[in-house]
Write a structure and sequence with these properties.
The protein has about 325 residues and is α/β, with parallel strands linked by helices. It has twelve helices and twelve strands. It binds NADP nicotinamide-adenine-dinucleotide phosphate.
Length: about 325
């Protein structure tokens, strides 16, 4: 098959397609601007001119990646050229109490995806996490820094990285927010509609990353089959406390309602430890001269403009 043929008939399979990131990845490959995305986004626009994608949106009800036979069946039926593997058990605190389930989905599930992709010659893009690091670095982590996850979730996601064939793509991201899932923007807006206190930690720092922006980069690295690990986050580093203030301000609430606390004062304490420093230097993208994602404040403004006050959710933010 020539490169031209490949781009003419390319098929992509998205795991976890019903999740907040998966939903936007499906939109990006289908040539739609994801909710809160940038019209004319170079990443998505490039796809539009280069190729027509046939998208298989494999949500959890269609594909459980921990089921080896089910993964093989769908891959042999679809025969995708590219797989965006966004499906994962992302309930970080619950993972501490059920490591077997975390490893079955995040590690073994990725083994199944890698094996099935190998059989049909598909390129795998695996979405991974800042939680592979312990957060003790005094600077943002580059792709080549030593990993040392502190939680079951982080260990199971790192184990998933280890299941991939050489030449696959790993995209590590952080503090993910989008229109279609549980996230901190939704949590802050829900709390703002209630009367109780709003306390957020000021000693965990990272980069909020908006799925509408991240999806475009996943589409580019997938369609170009770029090998290796990439850190992909929106630009700028903040704390959860500062982020909560920014969400309130952008949504027209009083940011002074939020009180800063330290992690040890969280009540009840969270079962899974979080890295104090989650900042990821997007070094591989930068060194390759590729476009960096805009500042997180820009992504937040676009998300709120596109969704209005996001529907309250009782789901736990990550
Ligand atoms: N959220 C973050 O802050 C964050 C940060 C860094 C990296 N990531 C990574 O980004 C990716 C997308 O996360 P997200 O934020 O979009 O989370 P999400 O909304 O929870 O999406 C994950 C999706 O995977 C599905 N899933 C769960 N178990 C599965 C299984 N056994 N087989 C197939 N699908 C399964 C979930 O379905 P159900 O809801 O039905 O279980 C959900 O639709 C994940 O790989 C995650 O590890 C997330």
């Amino acid at each position: 098959m020539t490169g031209r043929d490949r781009y003419a008939v390319s098929k992509v399979l998205v795991t976890g397609a019903g999740g907040q990131l998966g939903t936007d990845v499906v939109d990006a490959f289908a040539g739609r601007v994801p909710t809160g995305g940038r019209p004319g986004d170079r990443a998505t626009g490039r796809l539009g001119v280069r190729s027509a994608w046939d998208v298989t949106a494999a949500d959890h009800s269609l594909l459980d990646v921990s089921d080896r036979a089910a993964v093989q069946t769908i891959f042999e039926g679809v025969r995708p050229h590219v797989v965006i593997h966004a499906g994962a058990w992302t309930a970080v605190d619950a993972c501490e109490g059920d490591p077997d389930r975390a490893y079955a989905v995040n590690a073994l599930g990725t083994r199944h995806v890698a094996e099935a992709a190998r059989r049909v010659g598909a390129h795998v893009v695996y979405v991974s996490t800042d939680y592979v690091f312990d957060g003790t670095s005094v600077r943002p982590y580059v792709e080549w820094d030593r990993t040392n996850p502190m939680s079951v979730y982080g260990r199971s996601k790192l184990a998933g990285e280890g299941e991939l064939d050489p030449g696959s793509t790993v995209v590590r991201t952080s503090w993910v927010c989008g229109a279609h899932g549980a996230n901190m923007v939704r949590t802050v807006l829900r709390l703002a509609s209630q009367t109780g206190p709003m306390r957020f930690v000021d000693d965990q720092r990272g980069s909020p990353t908006f799925t509408a922006d991240l999806a475009g980069v996943l589409a580019v690295v997938g369609s170009e089959r770029l090998p290796g690990t990439f850190h992909v986050t929106n630009a700028g580093v903040t704390s959860w406390y500062e982020f909560a203030q920014a969400v309130l301000e952008a949504a027209g609430h009083d940011p002074a309602r939020v009180e800063p606390i330290t992690t040890d004062l969280l009540d009840p304490p969270r079962p899974a430890p979080r890295p104090a420093n989650s900042a990821l230097d997007n070094a591989a993208l930068r060194l390759m001269g590729m476009e960096q994602l805009p500042d997180w404040r820009d992504g937040l403004e676009r998300l709120l403009a596109a969704t209005g006050p996001m529907a309250a959710s009782t789901k736990e933010a990550r």
